[in-house]
Design a protein that fits this description.
UDP-N-acetylmuramoyl-L-alanine:D-glutamate ligase; transferase; 5-stranded parallel sheet; 4-stranded mixed sheet; single chain; 2 domains; binds adenosine-5'-triphosphate; globular; lactose metabolism; binds 1-O-phosphono-beta-D-fructofuranose; tagatose-6-phosphate kinase activity; alpha/beta
Length: 304
């Protein structure tokens, strides 16, 4: 079983208009309220890949109710902790370019946090836990890290989709996969990369520090999978980009979901790239047929 953890899920309020004029009354041409948050997006892709999973997290208020309703309507199993405060609403403004305004997130009480932590006792050997997205202001900065020992004790694998020092702090616990984009990878080493060889050298350092697999995403420029023995490159799919929300989550989900089934990192990389591309070319998180249509486009080549 794969569990996704979204401590700070959101309703993504996607607004489309041709042009935004600051300081004026603007009117939307199209809008959607979508269940969002990085782990929720991971669950959506896992569901499309027919990979059994359960979404964990905190939901509250009318927005949390709508989020839980949408998650259930999509056939995703969830086991949320209900909180008193309100799930945030993140504004995704598509007016030529995309602008995002993400809420800080709700208050979560100590009792609610404890109720959440007891869920980890359900973990079994062979499970995988994917933790994604921002923390709410009431959670300590090391919240994800504090869950890892419990996850490992129960024989489960984990993935934390985060960046910077928080990512580095997880490496000693041997995450199944990490997926920095190339900018995040450069920031980890406070450098800029002159070429792809330097990217790979940096990825190897993360393997040396404990990561089991390193994916480097480079948006439309393709990606790398770096394992202890080999380096693979994949092209990005070709299509019209209509959405940048959730591409990274889709790639993580594609990798984790496929790896759970096959234990094959190369196949998992390929499906991850396809899921990322499929979400980029659609208004919401991609569905199974959109993913299937992209898979034949992805070619993985062993570089070394
Ligand atoms: N322009 C694009 N064309 C094709 N595929 C894309 C494009 N942008 C993103 N993707 C797909 O999505 C994956 C993740 O994208 P990206 O490298 O932007 O990650 P990210 O920065 O984590 O994403 P996010 O915008 O969700 O934070 C890429 O590896 C690729 O598979
Ligand atoms: O504020 P966070 O938790 O960093 O990111 C939240 C978020 O932007 O991430 C998803 C896309 O990756 C969206 O569904 C959601 O609104």
């Amino acid at each position: 079983m794969i569990y996704t953890i979204t401590v700070n899920p959101a309703i993504d309020y996607v607004i489309e208009l041709t042009q935004l004029t600051l300081g004026e009354v603007n009117r939307t041409e199209n809008y959607h309220f979508l269940a969002g948050g990085k782990g929720i997006n991971v669950s959506q892709i896992l569901n499309q890949l027919e990979q059994e999973n359960t979404a964990w997290g905190f939901v509250g208020g009318f927005s949390g109710g709508e989020l839980a309703r949408q998650v259930a309507a999509k056939g995703i199993t969830s086991d949320f902790v209900e909180i008193k405060d309100q799930t945030r609403i993140n504004v995704k403004l598509k007016a030529g370019q995309e602008t995002e305004i993400n809420g800080a997130g709700p208050e979560i009480s100590a009792t609610e946090i404890e109720a959440f932590k007891t869920k980890l006792q359900n973990l079994q050997e062979g499970d995988t836990v994917v933790m994604s997205g921002s923390l709410t202001p009431s959670l300590p900065a090391n919240f994800y890290q504090s869950l890892i020992p419990v996850i490992k004790e129960r024989g489960a694998e984990f993935v934390v989709d985060t960046t910077g020092q928080a990512l580095l702090d997880t490496l000693a616990y041997e995450p199944l996969v990490i997926k920095p984009n190339h900018h995040e990878l450069a920031e980890l080493f406070t450098t800029t990369f002159a070429n792809d060889d330097e990217l790979v050298v940096a990825a190897r350092k993360l393997l040396d520090r404990g990561a089991q697999h390193v994916l480097i995403s480079m948006a439309g420029a393709g990606g790398y999978l770096v394992t202890r023995d080999h380096v693979y490159h994949a092209n990005a799919a070709k299509g019209t980009v209509v959405n940048s929300v959730g591409a990274g989550d889709s790639m993580v989900a594609g990798f984790v979901g496929t790896f759970a089934r096959t234990k094959d990192p190369v196949e998992s990389f390929k499906i991850g790239m396809a899921c990322g591309g499929a979400t980029t070319f659609t208004k919401d998180i991609a569905n199974a047929s959109q993913i299937a249509a992209i898979i034949p486009q992805i070619e993985v080549v062993e570089v070394s």
